[in-house]
Amino acid sequence: GGYNWNSGARLEPGVWTHLALVIEPNSATIYKDGVPYVHKTSLALNDFYSSISIGADLNGGDRFFNGWIDEVCLYDRSLSQNEIREIMHLTRTHSAVNGLLSYYQFNEGSAKIFDREGSHHGALSGSAELVQSFAPVGPGSSKRLDLSAEGDYQFFPTGLTAGIAPGTQFPEGELCVSRINYIPSTYFDPVQKPVSPSYWIVHNYGTNKNFANFNSLLFDNIGSVSALSGDKDYGLFGRFANADTSIWSPLASSSYRIPGPDGGVEFQMVNIREGQLLISKTNADTLVVHVNES
Hints:
The chain is an all-beta fold. Helices cover 2% and strands 33% of the residues. The strands form 4 sheets. It has a 10-stranded antiparallel beta sheet with strand order 8-11-12-17-14-15-16-13-10-9, with helices on one face.
C-alpha cells in the first residue's frame, strides 16, 4: 500500500483509540473505534512467521510510536467489521477465539512480554517500559442492534434494554453495547455510595449522531438491589466512550428498581448518544459481614 496513503484517520492525543488493521487481497482497511478507512490496493500474503516489532517500524530507522499500547492481537484471518465492533472493549482470556495467533496484554511486571495465546513471547527494548493501564477493556459481553424505529431494544446478553419513544429521532443505524464485568480502575466515589459491579460502553454507528434522548434505559443483573432502597435512589453517570479518568458526569436518577439478589434499575429520558455508563447504588445493596469478637 505504501506510506503515501492518507487514510484520514487521526489519533487524538491523550485518548485511548481502538485500532484494527485488516489485510485482504485487494484492500487494507484501518478500523478506528470500529469505523473503517479503506485503501484499495493489491497485497501479498503475510504469514507473520518472521519477527515483528510492536510500536516501531523496523524499516523506518527512528520511526517509533510515542504513546501507550495495550491488548495487541494477531489473527491468521481477516476480521469482519461486526467482529471488530463487538470485541474491541473485551479481553480475550476467557474463551477460545477463532484464528487468534498471539495475544499480548502487557500485564507482566518484568521486561518479559508473554503471548497469552501462543508461544511467541517478546521482550521490551530501547526505552519502552511497562506502566499501569486504565484502558476501557475487560471481560464481558457485547451486542449490536439497528435502531431505526421506535420500540424497546434488548442488547442481550449485556443486560441493557434501550427504549426509543414514538415521534422522536432515531440513531438511524447500528449501536454496539459492551458490558465490562468489573468496576473501572479509575472509577469515582459518588457520595460514598457503592457502584454496579459492571459498566457499559455504547458506540453509535448510525447516521444520526444527534438523535433525541433515550426514552428509557433498563439495566438488568447489576448485583444486589435491596427492597429497602427507594425507586429513585440510584444514579446513572457517564463519561466518553474511550475515557479512562475518574471524571463521571451525572445523567439521570432512577425511575424504579427491580429488587433481588441480581436485580435491575431503570432510568428515563437519558441524555446520552454514546459513551460509558456506570450506576451508583445504595448502601442497603451491600452485604455487611459482622464478626463477633471472642
